[in-house]
Amino acid sequence: MEQPFPYLQFRNVTKFFGDVPVVKEPFNLSIPAGQFTVFLGPSGCGKTTLMRMIGGLDTPTSGEILLQGTPVGAPDIRRGMVFQSYSSFPWLTVRKNIEFGLRFRKDLSSGQKRDRAEHFLKLVGLGDFATSYPSRISGGMRQRVAIARTLAADPDVLLMDEPFGALDASLREDLQFELRKIQKSSRKTTIFVTHDVEEAVFLADRIIVFGSRPAHVIADIDVTSLIGAERNETVRDSEQFFHLRTEILHRLRGRCVKAVAA
Ligand SMILES: Nc1ncnc2c1ncn2[C@@H]1O[C@H](COP(=O)(O)OP(=O)(O)OP(=O)(O)O)[C@@H](O)[C@H]1O
Question: Which of its termini does the chain have fewer beta carbons within 10 Å around, N or C?
């Protein structure tokens, strides 16, 4: 049944930091439930600011952001966020860090919480480090702890700001693959910020491509219709993937493209 309003919506949003316009022209965007949307654009164009406003960490200067028709307020457990930097708690073990994400889940028994934490611990490849403290593991591993903690909490909307930026290439590809799989099976509405074109194409159902600040949309791309919904190890080698990646790179450099809709 069609919903009377978009699941997540930016309505006439602008954002200024003092005199600095980050979003100058009123920004409008509707995101349906369950979509994996990637915000792609050059450094400093305003992607993070737009995402922080969804999370309630920044407020629009004008306009509003609506979740299921209601303006978003301060951060809450419905919106789970993973940032660029490693946000693990140094005084808790890796396992306890992940269980921490479940502290508000009154619907789960402590045994269920432990099992769920264990599941996500293994999913991010940290099964052998459950009792380690963050100071004893690498930066990339700490980032995986933060990702597992947020996924385990099972928020309605997953907001991810370059969460794989610090990881080595092979682990990054593994986690992209896992994230896409988890997102499809959970149908969790996801906004993922990156400036990496290949990462964007691999993960997204839809890519919003931004030009440099003030944030403005230069393309809104239905990735699934161009490369299909299946994202496995071989998709990166496909002709469609190659073409889409090249076209987006050209568009970011300001050259004209054919197959990508504006
Ligand atoms: N709290 C703030 N006060 C003043 N200016 C800010 C603040 N936060 C962000 N900005 C500015 O807003 C602009 C957009 O920043 P933002 O972090 O949203 O960009 P981004 O596209 O996510 O960049 P990156 O990919 O480098 O993280 C930048 O020019 C930045 O310096």
Answer: N
